[in-house]
Specification:
Elements lengths: L4 H5 L5 H14 L1 H5 L9 H16 L2 H20 L1
Helix pairs in contact: 2-5
Length: 82
């Protein structure tokens, strides 16, 4: 489904505010995917391994990679504007 720009930006006064909202929403999902409290391993080494696996799965997900790429693109755009 395609949305007209006017409709999308009606909720966000600027592209920057929209971008920040997208990043905040995706970053908030970190706790859902990495949920350190639910790791049941008792030994520190095993717990850290389980946490590392969860963290890497999230970091390497399409969603997280999108945020990183957008942040780089946004930063490059700011440098060119300066």
């Amino acid at each position: 489904m395609e949305y007209p720009k006017r409709r999308s930006f009606g909720h966000f006064p600027t592209k920057r505010v929209l971008f920040e909202a997208v990043i905040a929403r995706i970053a908030a999902r970190w706790s859902e995917h990495v949920d350190a409290i639910s790791i049941t391993e008792r030994k520190p080494r095993d717990w850290l391994r389980a946490f590392g696996i969860r963290a890497l799965r999230w970091i390497l997900s399409d969603e997280a990679l999108f945020v990183g790429r957008m942040a780089i693109a946004w930063n490059n755009g700011l440098k060119k504007a300066a």
